From TrEMBL, chains A, B:
<dbReference type="Pfam" id="PF21943">
    <property type="entry name" value="TetR_C_46"/>
</dbReference>
<dbReference type="InterPro" id="IPR001647">
    <property type="entry name" value="HTH_TetR"/>
</dbReference>
<dbReference type="Pfam" id="PF00440">
    <property type="entry name" value="TetR_N"/>
</dbReference>
<keyword id="KW-0805">Transcription regulation</keyword>
<dbReference type="InterPro" id="IPR050692">
    <property type="entry name" value="HTH_transcr_repressor_FabR"/>
</dbReference>
<dbReference type="InterPro" id="IPR036271">
    <property type="entry name" value="Tet_transcr_reg_TetR-rel_C_sf"/>
</dbReference>
<keyword id="KW-0238">DNA-binding</keyword>
<dbReference type="InterPro" id="IPR054129">
    <property type="entry name" value="DesT_TetR_C"/>
</dbReference>
<feature type="domain" description="HTH tetR-type">
    <location>
        <begin position="10"/>
        <end position="70"/>
    </location>
</feature>
<dbReference type="InterPro" id="IPR009057">
    <property type="entry name" value="Homeodomain-like_sf"/>
</dbReference>
<protein>
    <submittedName>
        <fullName>TetR family transcriptional regulator</fullName>
    </submittedName>
</protein>
<feature type="DNA-binding region" description="H-T-H motif">
    <location>
        <begin position="33"/>
        <end position="52"/>
    </location>
</feature>
<keyword id="KW-0804">Transcription</keyword>
Amino acid sequence: MTETRVERKERTRRAILDAALQLCDGSSLVALSLRQVAREVGIVPTAFYRHFDSIEALGLELVDESFASLRSMLRDVRSGSQPSFSEVVDRSVGTLVEHVERRGRHFAFIVRERAAGPPAVRAAIRHQIELAQHELATDLARLPGTEAWSPEDLRVLSALIVGAMVGTAEQIVQADGRPDAVQQVAETARTQLRMVLIGALQWRSTPPA
Amino acid sequence: MTETRVERKERTRRAILDAALQLCDGSSLVALSLRQVAREVGIVPTAFYRHFDSIEALGLELVDESFASLRSMLRDVRSGSQPSFSEVVDRSVGTLVEHVERRGRHFAFIVRERAAGPPAVRAAIRHQIELAQHELATDLARLPGTEAWSPEDLRVLSALIVGAMVGTAEQIVQADGRPDAVQQVAETARTQLRMVLIGALQWRSTPPA
DNA sequence: CTAGTGGGTGAACGTCTGTACACTCAAACC
DNA sequence: GGTTTGAGTGTACAGACGTTCACCCACTAG
């Protein structure tokens, strides 16, 4: 009871973020109204402005939250230090599945708004995905077998992998908790990653162009 | 002047579809109002109902149109019969780039509404993409080197490729006509396809699991 | 030539939207 | 312990929304 004032504000703020996340499930941020959110939270519409300037600003906040959890995911994968390839594949896919299931609403949000959100939200998401690709590229550069790769080839490969992972996250969200469906998506992702890595390991043996 | 009645109706119908395609650029179908469309076309809101039951029904029509052009694209690629691999890669990517640039609005529409459209529209798009994956899988089965593959592996591979192509289409749409950006996306896509195919050709040499 | 079909009109409805403004009243501060 | 602060309230407005209804009147069919 020491800091009741800021605590209550934070609680309402969280309630607004959660309500927004829930309400725009099945449509999009651009179709979400300030009044719907306020009604769901149980406050009057004008009180919304005490926390956010607009729905779009709320969206940018949700992007940050979502990618905070994604970053923690990637950090987990990286922390698996010594990679046999089949081990790094299993760990990566497993961690992805776990996080997407745990924070399903956030990942569903990103997958949707990446293509359909307000322009500023789209730009923020694109930027975060580019960051993730860049981080993956620097990690790939440390793996044995990639010493001779050009930075451009590393970028292209990590774009391919990140793209496949985004697609996987999308399908996990669509599977919506059905464990067998999630299981099959995970298996598909594992196989895809193996195919890609096999191709990558052989890459320099056939010169580009 | 023989069939003026149905011609005029068809012309208005096209104008509605085009206006909808243009207006939901930058947001989404779920944020598009019947009145906006009518205003843009130059008809009164109620006249909209002479052509479509709802915005959602209009969306389903747009899905059909978009995938009609995608199918023609895939047919073009297939018609390149005898494949050296580097040739099939170049043809595929070139055809994709050409079609996406030609029908940019339709592809932007699909990329957006696939994740954010009304549920029925989303389902229709997902279904069409699954069809495309299936057709690609049967084509892959005809290539030399895949004789021993399981149907499941074929499905996984074609899902990977179609996913990468959807991602490529997305980036071309984002490049929005800047020729150098489009060029780079195309080059990235070519490299990615080569990496995937190299991996695929070596696939059976390392058993799964 | 006459009857009827059907794309488009225009006014009206109830509902929802974002935002402005003046307000309360408990917690925080000095 | 009196003053300030700020999250939440309540009312109000103008505009946009989907949908209804009765109404045109150019074209078509017979």
